[in-house]
Specification:
With 116 residues, the protein is mainly β. The protein is built from no helices and 11 strands. Strand 5 and strand 6 form a beta hairpin.
C-alpha cells in the first residue's frame, strides 16, 4: 500500500516560516520525482516545487527564492521549507510522488494559513 503523509502545516504570520514534510511508504522509492502542489479555496491545484530522483529542483515563479524543496532518501521523506510567507501562500499543500502515469500518488494535504 502506497501512502504519502504530509505534516507541518499551520497558522503563521506574514513573513514567517514553515517546514512541511511528506513521509512516503510502500513501494515509493528514491527513483520517484517528488512534488509539492497547493490549492487555495475556489482555485485549481497549482504546482509549487519538484525534486527529481537525481536531486534537481524546480520551482513555480511565485515561490522561487522563498521556498526550498529537499529530500532525504534514507528516510523516504521530502521537505518544503517555506520562508517569507505571504497571505497568498495560504492553501492546502499536497505532496505528490510520480514515476509514470500508472505510478502517481497523492497525499491527503496539509493546511497552511498565513494571516496576522
Amino acid at each position: 500500500q502506497v501512502q504519502l503523509v504530509e505534516s507541518g502545516g499551520g497558522l503563521v504570520q506574514p513573513g514567517g516560516s514553515l517546514r512541511l514534510s511528506c513521509a512516503a511508504s510502500g513501494s515509493i522509492s528514491s527513483t520517484y520525482a517528488m512534488r509539492w502542489y497547493r490549492q487555495a479555496p475556489g482555485k485549481q491545484r497549482d504546482f509549487v516545487a519538484r525534486i527529481t530522483s537525481g536531486g534537481a529542483t524546480f520551482y513555480a515563479d511565485s515561490v522561487k527564492g522563498r521556498f526550498t524543496i529537499s529530500r532525504d532518501n534514507a528516510k523516504n521523506t521530502v521537505y518544503l521549507q517555506m520562508n517569507t510567507l505571504k497571505p497568498e501562500d495560504t492553501a492546502v499543500y499536497y505532496c505528490n510522488a510520480f514515476l509514470d502515469s500508472l505510478k502517481n500518488y497523492w497525499g491527503q494535504g496539509t493546511q497552511v494559513t498565513i494571516s496576522s
